[in-house]
Amino acid sequence: MMKMEYSAKLLEKVNAAIAAMKYPVQPVGLYEPIRYVLSMGGKRIRPVFLLLSYGMYRDDLDRVMNAALGLETYHNYTLLHDDLMDRADMRRGMPTVHKKWNNNTAILSGDSMLVMAANLILSVDSPAFREIMQLFIQTALLIGEGQQYDMNFELRTDVTENEYIEMIRLKTSVLVACAVKMGAMLGGATTEDMDALYVFGEKVGLAFQLQDDYLDVYGNAEIFGKRIGGDIICNKKTFLLISAYHNANETQQKDLMDWLSREQFDEIEKIRAVTSIYNQLGIDKLCMKRINKYFKEACDCLACVKLPESQKESLWNFAASLIDRKY
Fold this sequence. Notes:
Elements: H1 5-19, H2 28-38, H3 45-55, H4 65-86, E1 90-91, E2 94-95, H5 97-100, H6 103-122, H7 129-153, H8 161-187, H9 191-218, H10 221-224, H11 230-233, H12 239-247, H13 250-261, H14 267-281, H15 283-303, H16 309-324
Antiparallel strand pairs: 1-2
Helix pairs in contact: 1-3, 2-6, 3-4, 3-8, 3-16, 4-6, 4-8, 7-8, 8-9, 9-15, 12-15, 13-14, 15-16
């Protein structure tokens, strides 16, 4: 198969499995929002990573599909609650659950998705089921910590680059790492391989999130799928904003703080002004340099996995496609 054809086939399998998921008939108000959330699409990165990792060791992918579905269900649970906390109106071009239904529905359906995710993972027959569930539970706790840090940062103006990187590691990267390690664990990998693949997933996750930060400012709106500059409008603490503040001179810092403190402003003017400061400081290049750093570290980790290069190729190509993306 061509480089990306294999992961595209896996994505088709994941989407078909999600569409075929069965839900209790009643109460409709609990399960219909879950069906709605999971039908909204998405890149399905985590289940594909799990299947690719498992596929390096075994080829009976259907055996572990429920684990892949479990991680995707869990990921969408975090998005559902994240949208509620952020009071976001739209997700993937569709109304969020709390807007389409209400806040209580978003909370309860989200909680049920968490339980469903655990049940799906538990349904996979594996002698390492205890270790697999420990990995999942620890990951869920870490993601909660990352979300709390993210909320804390909304009230601070002194967030450092290192603090931000740790926050996105917890909030985003550890679930990618969990997916890659869980696939290897289910496939019977050695402890050394599993550990290397976990760090590989972390590094890919960091690069992926920084790419999101970058594309929100420098991406193409039609390709990216959402409005460019949304993070700037919302004063979201991103790698770009934090780096700009810490690299700016006194005048540039003052201008940044002025825009961050305004309650009334023209959105287009604010995006242009803040982006201009980024450009003056070369923040785009700084961000890309950090993305490439994490991608190189991910490559080094994958090189430590004691398998023939041909068996690692599909996993590597999928990771590379995420960093090369324009959306």
